[in-house]
Design a protein that fits this description.
Layout (H helix, E strand, L loop, with lengths): L15 E4 H4 L8 H6 L3 E3 L8 E4 L14 H15 L4 E3 L2 H6 L5 E3 H7 L4 E4 H4 L8 H19 L1
Parallel strand pairs: 3-6
Antiparallel strand pairs: 1-2, 1-6, 4-5
Length: 154
């Protein structure tokens, strides 16, 4: 028979992740290029299967996803709390519990044992960011742009 050709694109760029240990050291959210040049990103390998956390977040500005560092601070706080056992358990979302009649629970002991050996995928550091610069430079230029706009309005 005829073979159906897939329209799915081939993998053009390898998946990059940041270890939880390195994430906890970050002073601010840094772009892919900076972390890669510092040797902090790792290409995903089969032995990482089941040990990658996907983080979804809202970009808080056009130039940088987290200009004030608020989201990174919360993420680091949650990871630390999970690793030190101060969150006793995490259960699957209530919709999954009701709709699928399935509850998965991860205990504090499991988080403490596994999180230090896990990795995080987050778009800003896992995917190349064309035009990205140091967030401190962006903050300065955004502040200057805002000041110029205010002067023009007066």
């Amino acid at each position: 028979g005829d073979r159906i050709q897939s329209s799915a694109p081939s993998l053009a760029y390898p998946m990059h992740v940041l270890s939880v240990q390195e994430l906890l050291k970050l002073p601010r959210l840094l772009p892919h290029q900076m972390l890669k040049s510092q040797g902090l990103l790792q290409e995903w390998t089969q032995d990482m299967r089941g040990r990658v956390i996907f983080v979804s977040h809202e970009w808080l500005s056009f130039r940088h996803p987290d200009p004030a560092g608020e989201q990174l601070s919360v993420l680091k706080c949650i990871l630390k709390r999970l690793m030190d056992g101060s969150i006793p358990k995490v259960e699957s979302h209530w919709i999954e519990q009701i709709g699928l009649k399935h509850t998965q629970t991860v205990t504090a002991a499991t988080w403490k044992a596994t999180l230090p050996h896990m990795f995080v995928w987050l778009d800003y550091w896992s995917v190349p960011q064309p035009g990205a610069t140091d967030p401190d430079e962006n903050a300065d230029s955004e502040t200057e742009a805002e000041e110029e706009e205010e002067e023009e309005e007066e």
